[in-house]
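Box 3.1 — From sequence to structure: 5-carboxymethyl-2-hydroxymuconate delta-isomerase
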Amino acid sequence: MAVLVFHLPRPAFAQQLSKEEMLFLTPEWKGERFPDGRPKVPDDLLKRMRLVTHEEAWAVLKGSNFRHQYEDGWLCINPDSVLVGRAVTAQFLPGRPDVHRVIDEKGHRKDGRIKSQNSWPIDMLTRGDVYVVDQFGAHEDGPTIGDNLGNSIFAKTGNGIVYDGAVRDINGLKEIGSFTSFVRSYHPSHHLNNPDGDLNTTLVGINRPTRIGKAFVMPGDVVLGRDGAVMFIPPQLAEKVVKTSEIVRLRDMFGHQRLREQKYTPGQIDNRWSDEIERDFSGWLNAYSDKLPVPKAQIQEYLKTRTW
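Predicted structure (token representation):
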């Protein structure tokens, strides 16, 4: 009888997945990738994603059986803006000196990392990224991010953060104009990072599968943060989410306009549209395609799928 032998990869503590591991865990993404294998959803889709609501994204994800991508209950920094970008993940655990020392040694001597562990993931950030951190809700003596690191993150990414823990210097973070962020709490203390003394956190993973509250986050997921909540959209569903949102938005605009004109009744618009209304909608799209908040090319693509 044949015996199957599985060779499991060695644990890669405090470092990102290998490219092979990243490809293995994200097989449904067929688009561009970063050199390390992380999915790279196009900038154009990220720009269009900023108008997507959680309701629209939720419907697409639930319909595709992705039911653990949403988390709320945040303290928001600059809550009137929208956070969109590609996830770079980091996972911390409560500090443990023996593990912390060997991770430090490996990071500094073998991996060429500098400074303390909380800066290692930040050094990897690029434009359009969102730093997504499992800080296990750490509060007093837990914050690893204040206004200095916040400014560094914003300079690299143009974005804020999703941080499952406390931050410090919250007034300084609010002064970074577009640093739209979702954090668990605020505390004026600073994290303790001395394995020979006080140690509150140890970094055990960068760009690995990560849990944020009840949500499962993969590196390269599209982060959508707005209205007090965050959704992590698998990259292979990003285009479907955006296109679905745009069609819903256009149909709502058309329906509201026709209701104001009293051309149709609320019952006609609220229910499944008749063939007459569908033809009217297609004609409306053609007439207003240069004035609508959806790319004209996408409107034309949609019209090609219509039967009238």
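Summary of the box: The chain is about 35% helix and 20% strand.
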